[in-house]
Amino acid sequence: MRSEKDELGATYWDFYKEVHGIRPRWVNHEKATVEWYRASLESLQREADAMWQEQQIREGEAVAEFEKSVESLIASGAGDRATAIRWLHEANDTNYDGEYLCYQLGLPYGYLRNDAV
Q1: With 0-12 CB in 10 A as exposed, 13-18 as middle and 19+ as buried, what is 8?
Q2: Rounded to whole angstroms, how far apart are CA atoms 51 and 64?
Q3: At a CB cut-off of 8 Å and minimum separation 6, what does 32 contact?
Q4: Where are the domains of the chain?
Q5: pLDDT of res. 117
Q6: Of the candidates 35, 51, 63, 114, which lies 20 to 30 Å from 5 by C-alpha distance?
Q7: What is the mean pLDDT of residues 79-100?
Q8: What pLDDT, in 10s, does the model give residues 48-87?
Protein backbone atom coordinates (compact mmCIF):
# COMPACT_ATOMS: atom_id res chain seq x y z
CA MET A 1 0.00 0.00 0.00
CA ARG A 2 1.31 3.44 -0.97
CA SER A 3 1.75 6.18 1.57
CA GLU A 4 -0.15 9.46 1.40
CA LYS A 5 3.06 11.17 0.35
CA ASP A 6 3.55 8.69 -2.50
CA GLU A 7 -0.06 9.14 -3.64
CA LEU A 8 0.25 12.93 -3.55
CA GLY A 9 3.60 12.74 -5.33
CA ALA A 10 2.16 10.63 -8.12
CA THR A 11 -0.83 12.95 -8.46
CA TYR A 12 1.46 15.99 -8.55
CA TRP A 13 3.73 14.31 -11.12
CA ASP A 14 0.81 13.64 -13.49
CA PHE A 15 -1.08 16.89 -12.88
CA TYR A 16 2.04 19.00 -13.43
CA LYS A 17 2.51 17.34 -16.82
CA GLU A 18 -1.13 17.93 -17.70
CA VAL A 19 -0.83 21.64 -16.86
CA HIS A 20 2.67 22.37 -18.17
CA GLY A 21 3.36 19.62 -20.71
CA ILE A 22 6.50 18.37 -18.96
CA ARG A 23 7.19 16.26 -15.90
CA PRO A 24 8.65 18.06 -12.86
CA ARG A 25 11.82 15.97 -12.76
CA TRP A 26 13.57 18.54 -10.55
CA VAL A 27 11.26 17.82 -7.61
CA ASN A 28 13.07 15.81 -4.95
CA HIS A 29 10.45 13.37 -3.68
CA GLU A 30 12.59 12.39 -0.72
CA LYS A 31 12.72 15.99 0.54
CA ALA A 32 9.16 16.94 -0.39
CA THR A 33 6.56 16.75 2.35
CA VAL A 34 2.88 15.94 2.33
CA GLU A 35 2.20 19.61 3.10
CA TRP A 36 4.38 20.73 0.19
CA TYR A 37 2.54 18.40 -2.20
CA ARG A 38 -0.85 19.62 -0.97
CA ALA A 39 0.12 23.27 -1.37
CA SER A 40 1.67 22.60 -4.77
CA LEU A 41 -1.43 20.74 -5.97
CA GLU A 42 -3.63 23.65 -4.85
CA SER A 43 -1.38 26.04 -6.77
CA LEU A 44 -1.49 23.82 -9.85
CA GLN A 45 -5.28 23.69 -9.62
CA ARG A 46 -5.44 27.49 -9.59
CA GLU A 47 -3.14 27.57 -12.64
CA ALA A 48 -5.25 24.98 -14.45
CA ASP A 49 -8.45 26.89 -13.68
CA ALA A 50 -6.96 30.14 -14.98
CA MET A 51 -5.69 28.40 -18.12
CA TRP A 52 -9.13 26.85 -18.70
CA GLN A 53 -10.82 30.23 -18.35
CA GLU A 54 -8.34 31.79 -20.80
CA GLN A 55 -8.96 28.92 -23.24
CA GLN A 56 -12.71 29.49 -23.02
CA ILE A 57 -12.22 33.16 -23.87
CA ARG A 58 -9.89 32.36 -26.80
CA GLU A 59 -12.27 29.73 -28.15
CA GLY A 60 -15.22 32.11 -27.84
CA GLU A 61 -13.31 34.72 -29.81
CA ALA A 62 -12.35 32.10 -32.41
CA VAL A 63 -15.99 31.02 -32.78
CA ALA A 64 -17.09 34.63 -33.27
CA GLU A 65 -14.36 35.17 -35.89
CA PHE A 66 -15.20 31.88 -37.62
CA GLU A 67 -18.90 32.68 -37.82
CA LYS A 68 -18.07 36.15 -39.13
CA SER A 69 -15.92 34.52 -41.83
CA VAL A 70 -18.70 32.10 -42.74
CA GLU A 71 -21.20 34.97 -43.06
CA SER A 72 -18.73 36.94 -45.16
CA LEU A 73 -18.11 33.99 -47.48
CA ILE A 74 -21.84 33.39 -47.89
CA ALA A 75 -22.31 37.06 -48.76
CA SER A 76 -19.36 36.85 -51.18
CA GLY A 77 -20.86 34.03 -53.20
CA ALA A 78 -20.65 30.79 -51.25
CA GLY A 79 -24.42 30.81 -51.02
CA ASP A 80 -24.75 28.60 -47.97
CA ARG A 81 -22.94 27.53 -44.79
CA ALA A 82 -21.79 24.17 -46.17
CA THR A 83 -20.11 25.80 -49.17
CA ALA A 84 -18.51 28.48 -47.00
CA ILE A 85 -17.07 25.80 -44.70
CA ARG A 86 -15.86 23.80 -47.69
CA TRP A 87 -14.07 26.92 -48.93
CA LEU A 88 -12.46 27.35 -45.50
CA HIS A 89 -11.28 23.74 -45.65
CA GLU A 90 -9.77 24.35 -49.07
CA ALA A 91 -8.12 27.59 -47.96
CA ASN A 92 -6.61 25.88 -44.91
CA ASP A 93 -5.58 22.64 -46.68
CA THR A 94 -7.32 20.42 -44.13
CA ASN A 95 -8.28 17.56 -46.44
CA TYR A 96 -11.86 18.24 -45.25
CA ASP A 97 -11.05 17.14 -41.71
CA GLY A 98 -13.35 19.15 -39.45
CA GLU A 99 -11.33 18.54 -36.31
CA TYR A 100 -8.16 19.69 -38.03
CA LEU A 101 -9.91 22.84 -39.20
CA CYS A 102 -11.07 23.41 -35.61
CA TYR A 103 -7.47 23.00 -34.45
CA GLN A 104 -6.11 25.36 -37.09
CA LEU A 105 -8.67 28.06 -36.35
CA GLY A 106 -8.60 27.69 -32.55
CA LEU A 107 -12.19 26.49 -32.40
CA PRO A 108 -13.39 24.20 -29.60
CA TYR A 109 -12.92 20.50 -30.29
CA GLY A 110 -16.01 19.17 -32.05
CA TYR A 111 -17.35 22.59 -33.06
CA LEU A 112 -17.79 21.52 -36.68
CA ARG A 113 -19.04 18.02 -35.90
CA ASN A 114 -22.52 18.74 -37.28
CA ASP A 115 -21.22 20.62 -40.30
CA ALA A 116 -20.43 17.75 -42.67
CA VAL A 117 -18.60 18.68 -45.84
Answers
A1: buried
A2: 20
A3: 5, 9
A4: 4-105
A5: 57
A6: 51
A7: 94
A8: 999 999 999 999 999 999 999 999 999 999 999 999 999 9
